[in-house]
């Protein structure tokens, strides 16, 4: 559901979030690889694309623009790891195109240090591109840094999986297709520790976390009028794919 100055419709508010909840709980318990690109090993990093259903569509509220927010589910930190919906409010992103990683960031920092030569080779085989040892990209690709402000609107500290954000293209019917990377290469909120929890950030009650995430995009997609940034991966719906996706319209909004 999204904040648009009036209460969302009941069908959107009651939309299930089974996929995210199961993925987030598994991550926090440390009993599964990351649903959107694990860092435990090169093979798990580049595992089968999790958002490759037969059909995926946006929720019936469509894309969200500047000044709007998307509400996503976090899980209560501690306790019994019970999933909680609508605990995190994600603001409209600021996106910058770059020719190299951010200052002070190297390939050795990607995915918490788990991105190595074999990871690069697997990424190239799967996606057709990958950073070189010094961070260089093939002709026709650029780094993009996404800056997000995520606010915990609940009364308890929540944990949130930042790896679910990704770029997509949206057609006139609202169907989506992935573009660029399956998950980010890096984020700036990592403080070390258990690598299995690399993508998980804690946000205290009433607090706002500002975070930067690094991706790679094809240059021809950066100015594509269909470009969007997916925030909420929605819910699995059997063989029909993922439904209820929530995304920001970022066409023409990438600077640099």
- Largest beta sheet, briefly? 10 strands, mixed
Distance between the termini: 31 Å
Low-confidence regions: 1-54
Total number of helices: 5
**Strand fraction:** 25-35%
- Approximate helicity band: 10-25%
Order of helical and strand elements? EHHHEEEHEEEEEEEHEEEEE
Report on the architecture of this protein:
It is built from 5 helices and 16 strands. The N terminus is likely disordered. The protein has 256 residues and is an alpha+beta fold. Strands 1, 2, 3, 4, 5, 6, 9, 10, 11 and 16 form a 10-stranded mixed sheet that branches. The chain has a 4-stranded antiparallel sheet with strand order 8-7-12-15, with no helix packed on it. A two-stranded antiparallel sheet has the order 13-14.
Which terms summarize this structure?
10-stranded mixed sheet, 4-stranded antiparallel sheet, disordered N terminus
Secondary-structure blueprint:
Blueprint: E1 2-3, H1 10-13, H2 18-29, H3 42-45, E2 69-76, E3 83-91, E4 94-98, H4 117-127, E5 141-152, E6 158-161, E7 166-170, E8 176-178, E9 186-187, E10 200-203, E11 208-218, H5 219-222, E12 227-232, E13 235-236, E14 242-243, E15 246-249, E16 254-255
Parallel strand pairs: 4-16
Antiparallel strand pairs: 1-2, 2-3, 2-6, 3-5, 4-5, 5-11, 6-10, 7-8, 7-12, 9-11, 12-15, 13-14
């Amino acid at each position: 559901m999204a904040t648009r100055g009036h209460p969302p419709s009941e069908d959107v508010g009651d939309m299930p979030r089974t996929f995210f909840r199961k993925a987030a709980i598994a991550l926090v318990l440390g009993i599964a690889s990351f649903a959107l690109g694990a860092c435990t090993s090169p093979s798990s990093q580049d595992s089968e694309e999790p958002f490759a259903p037969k059909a995926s569509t946006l929720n019936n509220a469509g894309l969200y623009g500047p000044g709007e927010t998307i509400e996503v589910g976090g899980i209560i930190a501690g306790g019994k790891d019970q999933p909680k919906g609508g605990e995190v409010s994600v603001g409209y992103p600021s996106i910058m195109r770059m020719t190299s990683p951010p200052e002070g960031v190297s390939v050795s920092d990607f995915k918490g240090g788990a991105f190595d030569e074999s990871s690069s080779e697997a990424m190239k085989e799967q996606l057709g591109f990958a950073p070189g040892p010094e961070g260089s990209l093939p002709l026709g690709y650029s780094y993009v840094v996404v800056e997000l402000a995520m606010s915990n609107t609940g009364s308890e500290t929540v944990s949130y999986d930042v790896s679910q954000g990704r770029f997509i293209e949206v057609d006139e019917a609202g169907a989506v297709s992935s573009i660029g990377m399956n998950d980010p290469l890096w984020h700036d909120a990592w403080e070390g520790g258990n690598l299995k929890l690399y993508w998980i950030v804690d946000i205290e009650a009433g607090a706002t976390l500002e975070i930067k995430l690094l991706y790679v995009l094809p240059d021809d997609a950066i100015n594509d009028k269909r470009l969007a940034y997916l925030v909420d991966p929605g819910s699995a719906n059997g063989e029909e794919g993922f439904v209820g996706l929530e995304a920001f319209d970022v066409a023409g909004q990438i600077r640099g």
